[in-house]
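Shall we go through a protein fold together, starting from nothing but its sequence? Please make up or recall a protein chain and show it to me in full. Go ahead whenever you are ready, and we will take it from there.
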Amino acid sequence: GAESGKGSGMRRNSLLLMGVVVLSLAGCSSGPNSLGVMAYDPTGLAFRHKMDSEKTLNIALGLSGFESKIGHGHVDYIMHFDRISSDDWNPYWGLGLGYALKIDDTVDDNDVGIGLRVPLGVSYQADGWDFFGQLAANVGGNVGISAALGVRFGL
């Protein structure tokens, strides 16, 4: 009861602290890699590698939602909608793999596993910063829709 609630708050605070440290140490550049934080599903670290102007690789690792009983992560191959993109705004879609794993024995085994993801989102880039929001359909493992908002900074 109270012990697990205290531990989950500490894990969430640790993830947020790691994100603040990463953003504080990041240099002021707009290279192909960026690192930051995202909130909701997952709440944790977000990494992006820009392959070219149309494709990126997005990786996330953290806790599912604001509940710290399920670890969550994904790797997505992202393609941008060039016809409706601008220099700053980039709508995108992708295909990826996501996972959910139990951190606490109270989690139902049906809520964990590996599955496909189809994310749809938009990012806004300005002065080395990348603000993004996305929805993703998840098939297999943790089935359903996940949502996240985040910010990354160029390394």
